[in-house]
Amino acid sequence: MITTRFLSVILFLLPSLVLAQETVTVIGTTVTQTFTAAASTTPVSAQYTNSLNFRESILNSTNTFRYEHSAGYIYWNETLATYAQSYSENCVWEHSHGPYGENLARGYPDVIESVDAWGNERSMYDFSSTDPTGFTEATGHFTQLVWQGTQATGCGWTDCNGKNGLDGIYLVCEYWPAGNVVGDDNFYFKQNVFAERSGGQSGFDELAATRGVTGGTPTSTGGITPVNTPAATSSGVSIGAPMAEVDRNGLLVTVCVTLAALLFGLGMS
Ligand SMILES: *[C@@H]1O[C@H](CO)[C@@H](O)[C@H](O)[C@H]1NC(C)=O
Ligand SMILES: *[C@@H]1O[C@H](CO)[C@@H](O)[C@H](O)[C@H]1NC(C)=O
Q: Which ligand lies nearest the alpha carbon of 151?
């Protein structure tokens, strides 16, 4: 539905861009903001406080999902990390409007649980090769996580401690090149988001998955050749309606805000 609307706008305004796939300029990025109702009183996990542990936890858990979906292991990029850290310190409850893919999480006790929350959205994704889910608010964090064309990540965190009304730890991860490239009848999702491989984690190489903690190049996990996505030439300009979910206990609330960068500020619904 969303895709149809994107496409019809592009078809109407820029027929030549649709014909030349390399120049598609529409990109969707997602933000997940998750918080606990009560501020955490337990000590902050070493997955946050120890800088090496932080990077390893991000890469190990991100690359586990990537491995399971036949995407290469990504590496750490300090430019992205600096950006993410700086943005997290504002404790601002929305997307940064930056040039990268971005996932946000809030209130999770450790890094691995945060990344798991993003990755577990895969249960709601339809991997059909002809008509996949594509971009949705409910699965956008997962599709960014396992996006084939993404090569690097960098994250930062801040214990917002009530600043701007935000309790708990605010985790910000940036991805480059950005995933969730929308348009062209989900062409980019078909090329970049793959179903879980048979065998699950079997063959996952923790050493290789965390080798990129100090930078480097992505490591192929075999099977499928990484696909490059077109460079984003436009960043977010409009904010769709927030979507909220409350878990069984009512303790955890997830709010997803979808930001669709559209040529003429069309909102998502
Ligand atoms: C790294 O990821 C693998 C697969 O998810 C997991 O079994 C392992 O415990 C993780 N290692 C660390 C140090 O978290
Ligand atoms: C890190 O990311 C930035 C921003 O995308 C890029 O310009 C730079 O080349 C990257 N550095 C490495 C070592 O990959």
A: 2
